[in-house]
Amino acid sequence: xxxxxxxxxxxxxxxxxxxxxxxxxxxxxxxxxxxxxxxxxxxxxxxxxxxxxxxxxxxxxxxxxxxxxxxxxxxxxxxxxxxxxxxxxxxxxxxxxxxxxxxxxxxxxxxxxxxxxxxxxxxxxxxxxxxxxxxxxxxxxxxxxxxxxxxxxxxxxxxxxxxxxxxxxxxxxxxxxxxxxxxxxxxxxxxxxxxxxxxxxxxxxxxxxxxxxxxxxxxxxxxxxxxxxxxxxxxxxxxxxxxxxxxxxxxxxxxxxxxxxxxxxxxxxxxxxxxxxxxx
Length: 280
What we know:
Blueprint: E1 11-14, E2 17-20, H1 35-47, E3 55-63, E4 74-82, E5 86-95, E6 98-109, E7 141-144, E8 162-167, H2 179-187, H3 190-195, E9 196-197, E10 200-201, E11 203-205, E12 207-212, E13 220-231, E14 234-243, E15 246-257, H4 265-272
Antiparallel strand pairs: 1-2, 3-6, 3-12, 4-5, 5-6, 7-8, 8-13, 9-10, 11-15, 12-15, 13-14, 14-15
C-alpha cells in the first residue's frame, strides 16, 4: 500500500520501540493497527533469531487476542527449541505491560526431496501481466472471479472468489523488507480474500497460520481464496500463497463475526488517501 505524502513504511523505530505510520492503521479503528502490519512486525522480531542459511520458516502462527494499539510497541522474543534440523522461536508485542499479540515460527532445515511421485492438486493461480516493481504509491491489486486485476478497493463487493497481488513496502523505515516479512504481512490478508463479500468484510480474524515450503522470489506475492467454512458467527478461511514461480504454501485464519461494524474497504481507502495505480 502507499499513501501520498507520508513515509513509505509501516513503522519507524524510536528508542528501541516501533511507532506506526498511517499505513499501519486498522480499517476497524483508528486507535488500532492492522493485522497485516502486526504480523509483519512479529515476523521481523522472530527473524532476529533466524538460523544460518539452509533453513526455511516453514510455519508461522500469530495469535491476535487483543487489539494492538496505535501506540509505541515493544517486542520481546526467545528461542525455545534449537536443534540440528529445527528451531522454534516465540515473540510477543507488549503495550502498557500487557502482551497484546504473540507469534511463533518453526524453522526447518532444507533437505533433498524424497524419491517417488505424490499426488498434487492442480492450481489456477492468477497473476497480473504487469509487474509491480515499485511498491511506493501502489495499493495491492484485487481480482474477483473472472474480472480483471484492479487497484479499486470497491471491486470486491461481490460473492466471487478473490485474489490479491501485493508488492509490500518496507516494514520499518530505512530497512529493506525480507521475503519472510513480506509473506507474513500478506498472509494476514486471508481474512480479506476469503471473507470479503457483497456487504464488505464482516469478520475479524483472531489468528493466522502461514505454512511455507519456500520463501517468495522477488517482491510480488499473491494470495487466492481457497476455502470458507462459516457457522454460528465463526469462520475458518483458507488461502493459497504464491508468486510468479508458483505456489509457496497455505494460510489459515479463524475469525469471529463483527457484523455491526462491517468494513467498507472503498471508504477506508478513500479516507487513507490510497490511489489506484495505472495498469497501463
